[in-house]
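User: Show me an example of a complex going from sequences to structure tokens.

Assistant: Sure. Here are the input components:
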Amino acid sequence: MAPKLDTAQMQRYWTKTSALMWTIFALWIFFSFVAPLFAVQLNTIRFLGFPLGFYMAAQGSLLAFVVLCVWNAISQNKIDEEFGVQED
Amino acid sequence: MADSKAAGGGFYGNLGKIYGGYAGGFIVFTLILAVLEQMGVPNKIIGYCFVILTIGVYAYIGILSRTMDLSEYYVAGRKVPALYNGMATGADWMSAASFISMAGGIYLGGFNALGYVLGWTGGYVLVGILLAPYLRKFGQFTVPDFLGTRYEGNGARLAGVLVLFCASFTYIVAQCFGIGIITSRFLGIPFEVAIFVGLLGILVCSMLGGMRAVTWTQVAQYIILIIAYLVPVVWLSTKKYGIPIPELTYGQALDQIAQLETKLGVVKHFTDAFTDAKGQFSWTEFNNFWALVLCLMIGTASLPHILMRYFTTPSVREARTSVAWSIFFIFLLYFTAPAYAAFAKLEVYQNVIGQPIASLPAWVQNWSQVGGLLTIKDGNSDGILQLSEFIINQDIIVLSMPEIAGLPYVVSGLVAAGGLAAALSTADGLLLAIANALSHDVYYKMIDPKASTARRLIVARGLLVGVALIAAAVAGTRPSGIIQMVAWAFSLAAAGLFAPLVLGIWWKRTTKIGAVTGMLSGFGVCLFYLVMTRYAPETFKGMFGTDLWFGIRNISSAVFGLPVAFGVTYVVSLMTPAPSKEMQNFVDSIRTPGGAVAAHTA
């Protein structure tokens, strides 16, 4: 069984976890709202044979979401191990 | 297989072999039907084979997975590995709306409908970072369980059940509607009857084995639905451009569509962003786009039938990994959908419009008979089909595209089987979420806490059948289009559940009264806007002097409910005494994967 963290350690653990959450959250906002909402401007650029604005909403942002989820799983597992709170 | 499942060892060790063999078997089955088609077996028989044999397989898995164990029934014994839970979540997630309607929506709406593609994928980021691992650590049976524990009492539990019921029921009616369309078209029976035939398909999967049966049928259904969705698009991509990766080639289709749009005089271009019907940039479309994306994403992270899938993994770590697998499996379909839409559009522009109406192929006839979803009216009586004379419903684009493009009928049968898998798997997940909330949270936790295991399982099954019958009956009245009903469900769930779930984990100061009032007011505002603008638009206009607040359509009602839910929860929490030390310890204990969940009273 994982050792119980004292208050200070718990605080540090949660600060790190929160920092990761907010970083990914900010990128989520970027790919969900910022990039697609500039579609009119981006559509004037061609990318892989697509208008870029269309491409981002149809493929680019989706790819980014997959990467964000994988990144979250890997990084959070590392944080857990650093503090010794992973499951046995 | 039945014995090894019961024992738990052999089955879990051989998952790869079992499902690999199953996928191979399905491909062989499809190829045999393709050969039979070439030998002159009628289309009708091919359609029957796909629909009946796939439902038969699901029923078989459902019966093999029957159980009388509570943990197996509610959370599949918490033994589902991350990869398979990802597939099951994919099937649970991708419903008739994603499979049948989404590409159709893009076909009709162009860029503006990409809000669905974005909205139905990005939410998993929120599930992964905000909720899934923590709910898994909490480790009970249902989402209202969490609310009832964190917010100490039956008030929060009941409010949770209310929101869950409204959202999931709306959602399930849409699935029954989709199942009705497919069974009606491919079995050649009336829509109202077809719904109830499809219902049997839902019940055999979930009734006997609960979450365990649903999990293993959903994995099987994912495999069928993804093959079915990719085959026609990959085929067309190869046929048209010589490369079997549609996601790379449909840029060319978009160019051809743009040229044909000019030729046919279409003013609203396919790839243009935020344009209205006249092809002009519109702030209303712009606002509705981001509002829809927001509601669908937050709704993703609030829908209990999705969140409860992460209760079934063996550990918190696997729950996180499983979110990543889920979005990957879902992504495979979603980033193909716009290609599906583009190819369908190109086919219609090139090969349907401008043809003599008398010589249109048989699919036009066949689809015109399914409840007015396709109409062809020779407005100017010149015998030639004009663009404005061809009215196709978004719910049949995906199903009819293989025929429109002249692919063998076996591909149509395959797509129908895929659509059916998508609708059945989601309906099962939803049905289980509703029945579990009613049997576990309402009956066991609130009405009869002394009920025996056997009795609890009987009640759960009875409720399952009851809810399914009512949903099918409501679907028979054709309340609205599939995608619209599903979007309502997302808004309702988002407005009612997101704030209490997220704040319950991330803000220790959230109090019981704050959460309950926040939930009810957010959900209330959302429901009010939805119902009023949909069913009493005149009264709504009389009250506010406008048809819609800020022009936001009611599929995005949660845009108004969410800020209310968060605002009320925040203010009321600060006005009421902080949660007890025990509750704070409880929150700490679900924040770390290791260790026990701290004692809690409720």
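The lines above are the inputs; the final block is the predicted structure for all two components together. The beta strands of chain A are 46-47, 50-51.
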